[in-house]
């Protein structure tokens, strides 16, 4: 198809965005893929006890209401439970297409707060909840579909070190954890596009969500709320609470990781106009990129040079690398 050829020549995936967020190491992911996505083929030797008296449809409804951690615990009861849980539609979709979101919740200690349905809903949503552009990422504390620009700048996605939040709110850390009932446990990662490591606290709190809950309970006054919402937290913390999360279209079975424009990178390097940095950092769905292509002179020039996708053309080193990072270590993480 012509559209596929245009995408091959003029678009690319910004892998550096994926690498600076919560991310599983490739060899760890490969080791669990088969067990996550498939049930044991052997016939079940045990039943579910009294649960087997319920119709399968009712059991599936019960499973949909289980939080993610309980879902996995049920899945490990026996072969019968594993087969039932694995074949559920929402689970199959998330395990195959939204694995980073699923593993991210488990690793961050947030799995008891959300169901498979909570993960499935953003998986089949294309747009960022906050700005409406294509959203190729997931904010873990609220399982919100979002874009990279909102992760970097939106106050709705701000996170704060638990100890800092406790100090500004003038509430003991113990009481804060008891009232909120959850916090994000950070996991190892780079979390910076610069050649330096960002200091990683042990726990983070979603500022907007926590502040709203404390205000509702009458624990926070307006002065402390303003102090929390205006605090300038260290750059990169929001990356520790987000992960890459492709869009899955259940109507055609297609998965879209998001693509960026090579032409916009060419224009950025040539510095032909103000504001091109924002353009080169935009992420599109495959369909929305084709609309962008119609207005991007540099992308059209690349297409012309390729003679309809039949010739290799020059492109910036940045787009060949897929972003800022030049080398990856043995685990596929940026050096």
TrEMBL record:
Residues 48-94 form the F-box domain. Transmembrane segments: none annotated. PROSITE patterns: FBOX. It comes from the Eukaryota. InterPro entries: F-box-like_dom_sf, F-box_dom. This is F-box domain-containing protein.
